[in-house]
């Protein structure tokens, strides 16, 4: 709750700070009614907020500060809230590191916010004094907590000629709700990053060293796994330690960029990982073959990067800025809906439709031999893409029209996109399993030792694919839950503990998954004789691509990769 201070100086010199409590506390009034008999004008009232509460102090371990505002507005017949009313605040933010030094100005801005209020009772004389029900307003976000004490002075200047703060009702009080990261969680988070960074870096160096020892160039899957390891290492590097000693307000933006790069790489990897294990010989090992799936991920990630720069990039100089409170921001949000509809939803919807349509044209006998994306079947792709684009457009407009807050609309659309992506990924894994099942028919012709080896290999590969699906499902759930949690207030320690455990658990799962991929897909340097290998198989040259040697030599690709018909193109 803010304290209403009275600034009785002429010209309202802004270099003097009004403190709500302490030895130099300001002259206060209890409510607005007290100002009328004392002839105190609205321009003389300053809403003062000290952060934190008395006998407490802020800490760099809090990492960031986020504040939302709640206005208490009373109904008056002669001072009602007009349609599309906008409150204009003159806000000054200061800081100091002890209780006796002078306040230093950190930011001073004019902060406009649109009011969205409803009055549930009849607008009559007997209901005067009742409060409007107003939506909370985004107020301030700072990417670091480098000082112990902060002070906010909020003025509501009135200028009837310029229509400033006219028709906004009678504001009784201003409430601020502060949100910051728990210091204990920050220490656990830093410790995890410090431990996991060398682990992933060492396995990544070991993995790439084994690949470079081969005479052939790396295949596409090996390159993508290495790129995934780089993105995981990038997000692991504990640069947050420097935020404890330095006032780095850009850490939130930097964290968003790192997480966005990893998300884009992880989503692209899953598509390529499944596709490389089921495509035909002439289509595999080419990134261009995945442009319909990877392209939307790249476009969507770039759009989110631009959007984040428009929000948190501006907040580096103006912590009170919020793109959601401006007309330009609203138009930009609608534009992003259109981009998401065209670039993300349509390709995956059409891809699912095409694959299921082609899939339905195969008999069970043909499916038992392995169904691949490389099979050429006319599926009326262009008509399907037009239909799915129209469906995505209608879906986006429906969400935009019936969602009260644009933030929640973005969460809904992003959740729909990720769910469609997950369904597409599940279908690709199903196709991979079909391919593997077709190859298992060659196992009885092998010797017992080799047959048992390949059965174990197939079992481990299927288990890895199921782990991939589980990791993808948890990532989708984590994204939706984290966005919903960020967009809503969470009261009580239980919610915070659950979210923290879930967050650290997903982060550990990502690291373990990337570690396992690089360990299992590193080329083996054991050498089995080719004559013995082909003799055990008892198959003709045409099937030698499907099942070759048990363990690859230095010039061959990984064993799982060869098992699924993925040798490198020389």
TrEMBL record:
Wntless GOLD domain: which residues?
3-181
Transmembrane helix as a keyword? yes
Against InterPro entries, the record matches this protein to: WLS-like_TM (IPR047843), WLS_GOLD (IPR053936), Wntless (IPR009551)
**Similarity remark:** Belongs to the wntless family.
Protein keywords: Developmental protein, Golgi apparatus, Membrane, Transmembrane, Transmembrane helix, Wnt signaling pathway
Name of one Pfam family that matches = WLS_GOLD
Q: Which PANTHER family match?
A: INTEGRAL MEMBRANE PROTEIN GPR177, PROTEIN WNTLESS HOMOLOG
What are the subcellular locations of this protein?
Golgi apparatus membrane
What protein am I looking at? Protein wntless homolog
Q: Among the record's GO biological process terms, what is one?
A: Wnt signaling pathway
Which Gene Ontology CC terms are recorded?
Golgi membrane
Membrane topology of this protein: Multi-pass membrane protein
Gene Ontology terms for molecular function:
Wnt-protein binding
**Wntless-like transmembrane domain spans which residues?**
182-340, 408-525
Q: Where are the transmembrane segments?
A: 188-208, 220-237, 257-275, 287-307, 408-436, 457-481, 501-522
């Amino acid at each position: 709750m803010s304290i209403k201070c009275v600034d009785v100086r002429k010209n309202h010199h802004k270099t003097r700070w009004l403190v709500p409590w302490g030895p130099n506390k300001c002259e206060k009034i209890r409510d607005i009614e007290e100002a009328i008999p004392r002839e105190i004008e609205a321009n003389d009232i300053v809403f003062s907020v000290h952060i934190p509460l008395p006998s407490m102090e802020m800490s760099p371990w809090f990492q960031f500060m986020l504040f939302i505002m709640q206005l208490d507005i009373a109904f008056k017949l002669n001072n009602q809230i007009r349609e599309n009313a906008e409150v204009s605040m003159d806000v000054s933010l200061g800081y100091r590191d002890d209780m006796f030094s002078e306040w230093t100005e950190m930011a001073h801005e004019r902060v406009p916010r649109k009011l969205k209020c409803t009055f549930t009772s009849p607008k009559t004389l007997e209901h005067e004094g009742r409060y409007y029900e107003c939506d909370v307003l985004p107020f301030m976000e700072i990417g670091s907590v480098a000082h112990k004490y902060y002070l906010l002075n909020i003025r509501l200047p009135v200028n009837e000629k310029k229509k400033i703060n006219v028709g906004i009702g009678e504001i009784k009080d201003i409430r601020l709700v502060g949100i910051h990261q728990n210091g204990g969680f920050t220490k656990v988070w830093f410790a995890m990053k410090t431990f996991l960074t060398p682990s992933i870096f060492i396995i990544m160096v070991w993995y790439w060293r084994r690949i470079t020892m081969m005479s052939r160039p790396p295949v596409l899957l090996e390159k993508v796994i290495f790129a995934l390891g780089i993105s995981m290492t990038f997000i692991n590097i504990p640069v947050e330690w420097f935020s404890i000693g330095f006032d780095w307000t850009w850490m939130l933006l930097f964290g968003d960029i790192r997480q966005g790069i990893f998300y884009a790489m992880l989503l692209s990897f899953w598509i390529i990982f499944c596709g490389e294990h089921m495509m035909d010989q002439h289509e595999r090992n080419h990134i261009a073959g995945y442009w319909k799936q990877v392209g939307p991920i790249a476009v969507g990630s770039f759009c989110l990067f631009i959007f984040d720069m428009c929000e948190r990039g501006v907040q580096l100089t103006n912590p009170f800025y919020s793109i959601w409170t401006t007309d330009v921001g609203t138009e930009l949000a609608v534009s992003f809906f259109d981009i998401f509809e065209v670039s993300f939803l349509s390709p995956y919807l059409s891809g699912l439709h095409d694959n299921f349509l082609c899939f339905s044209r195969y008999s069970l006998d043909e499916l038992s031999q392995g169904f691949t994306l490389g099979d050429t079947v006319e599926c009326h792709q262009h008509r399907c893409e037009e239909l799915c684009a129209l469906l995505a457009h209608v879906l986006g407009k429906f969400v935009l029209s019936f969602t009260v807050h644009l933030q929640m609309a973005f969460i809904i659309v992003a959740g729909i996109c990720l769910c469609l992506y997950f369904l597409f990924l599940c279908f690709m894994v199903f196709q991979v399993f079909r391919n593997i099942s077709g190859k298992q028919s060659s196992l009885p012709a092998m010797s017992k030792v080799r047959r048992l080896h390949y059965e174990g290999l197939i079992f481990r590969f299927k288990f890895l694919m199921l782990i991939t699906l589980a990791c993808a499902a948890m990532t989708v759930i984590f994204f939706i839950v984290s966005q919903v949690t960020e967009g809503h207030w969470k009261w009580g320690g239980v919610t915070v503990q659950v979210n923290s455990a879930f967050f650290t658990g997903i982060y550990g799962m990502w690291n373990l998954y990337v570690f396992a991929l690089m360990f299992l897909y590193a080329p083996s340097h054991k050498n089995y004789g080719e004559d013995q290998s082909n003799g055990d198989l008892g198959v003709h040259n045409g099937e030698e691509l499907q099942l070759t040697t048990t363990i690859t030599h230095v010039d061959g690709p990984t064993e799982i990769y060869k098992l699924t018909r993925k040798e490198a193109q020389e």
